[in-house]
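Hey, can you fold this?
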Amino acid sequence: MTIREANRGSAPSVASAADPQRERNPGPNPYLDVLLASYEAERLADSNGPAALIGLLTATIGLSGLVGALLINHGAPTWLIALAPTAHIPFMAFGALMAHVSQVRGELIYRYEREIRRCISPPSPWLLVPPVGGALMRRVWRGWFGSSVVVLLLISILAGYIAILVESYRLSHDMHPVLALSALSFCSCATLVILVLYAFALFPERVVDSEVERLAQSA
């Protein structure tokens, strides 16, 4: 049974979304039905996010291993060694995009849950009003535990990539100085831009607030 079906059955009575006093309304609430449908759709879409991020992280780590093996094998062409660090850029850029999308969807789910809890009148003020999954996950990800894990992960990946970048330039700049310098400059600038994009992904409230304001103005 979905949340929407429970709302239509013998669930706790529903309060009007516009009523701050939460007066009980025994009839159906179309606003809450639409809210629950949107919430369920976003939760379904969000269920694929962690698997995609794990797959991307695994691919990036595997690529780092292949590039490291290429650098150790001195029989590889020097032009290939010079260009090897550029293979990481698409993975890291797409990872920044997915992280931003995931953060924005998480913020949207959190606001849906907050609005749903506001519309539901619990049978007792001491009972926990569902749904609360988004709020709990938000507390984990934005707490000290989640922040520490993310920082350690980014530092580890960045340190490994910097080592690959430096070693690639050292091994290739004698034979292909222009190509090696171009690859080094491009990868360094791209990495800085991607880090800025990751930083923007930490503040999804701005995206949601700006879009809500735009929709309100166009309505």
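Oh, and this one too while you're at it.
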Amino acid sequence: MRTLLPHKQLKLNLPNEFDGIVGIAALCDLRPNEIILFEHACELVGIQLRSEARALPNMPTNIFFVGENAITLQFEPVQYGAYFTGIYYPVYKWHAAHLTDQQIITCMIEEMCHVFWGIRDEIQVEYKVLDVVHVRYPELNLGDLYSTEWLQ
């Protein structure tokens, strides 16, 4: 099993901080706007990482865009276990819920904040997402990013 998926296969323009640390795979079809949103989310995360002089964790992280099918792991013949950090974006749920571009990019940034900043708490991560978004959009607030039900 490969521990890092090359993002080159998606032809993405990503921050240098992601090189050698973040692998990306689309296990489903992505709409053109979703690719653009992901690149923008990564750009904002990269800017925030640089502004904090924070390096990504030294653990490879794979980001998966998934459809409705389950993910299957394939092991090498002499491999008896594996570990990895992963972010999973259920694209089919975005489509079914008719999420807006702003909701999709918020989801993307939130999951990266959980992993790259090591934040488990859902409320704390929302404030980190706001920090990341404020890099380019200082006028936004939590209510702009999250529905009131999510903030409970």
